[in-house]
Amino acid sequence: MGQISLPKPANLIIGILTSIPELLFQIDKTLEVYFGPIDLRSDILPFTFTEYYNEEMGTGIQRQFYSFEKLIMPDEIAPIKVQTNTLEETIASSKKYPVQRPINIDPGYMNESRLILASTKDFSHRIYLRDGIYAEVTLNYRGGRHESFPWTFPDYKSADYQNFFLKAREVYVKKLKGKEHY
């Protein structure tokens, strides 16, 4: 019989989508209030992989990822997703912006072997966590690189995203080495 044990802490990763440049330059400070200091930022990348969000978010959508200094336990991702959804709703209900959905805040976490994304949408490859939140393994780390799955969003397969996730993994592994109780 296997021994029950707790998982290692994971690295919180949050992806932002927005067509409002000022929001992109403000949201990191808001996220740091909730989740602590950011230790790694991706470049700001054009989001050209789909027009799925254009109707509610407008055109010229950009993407940026953040990695957070403080590690989380994997089961914290469900309440974090609830928190980021509430933040999205607060920003949208302010009516300060000319689009229905000014920002999309997508949390997930990374460990040594995978990137997990949280979602409010159920699908065959997603597992229910709690509070209406599901999780999916989006990328698998093997052989020095991240591998995708048939359900992985096309943007997560791109070189720019992959480069950020590799850097974030390096930072995460260094953080783990600094923890002596593992």
Give the tally of β-strands. Answer: 9
Strand content: 25-35%
Which regions are unreliable across 5 or more consecutive residues at pLDDT < 50? Answer: none
Order of helices and strands: EHHEEHEHEEEEEH
Which class best fits the helix and strand makeup?
alpha+beta
Q: Give the termini separation.
A: 22 Å
Question: Would you mind describing this structure in some detail?
Answer:
- This protein is α+β, with helices and mostly antiparallel strands and 182 residues long.
- It has helices at residues 21-24, 27-35, 54-57, 77-93, 159-177; strands spanning 10-18, 38-41, 45-46, 62-72, 103-110, 114-119, 127-130, 133-142, 145-148.
- It has one domain.
- Strands 1, 2, 3, 4, 5, 6, 7, 8 and 9 form a nine-stranded antiparallel sheet that branches.
- Pfam families: DUF4416 (PF14385).
- InterPro entries: DUF4416.
- This is GTP-binding protein.
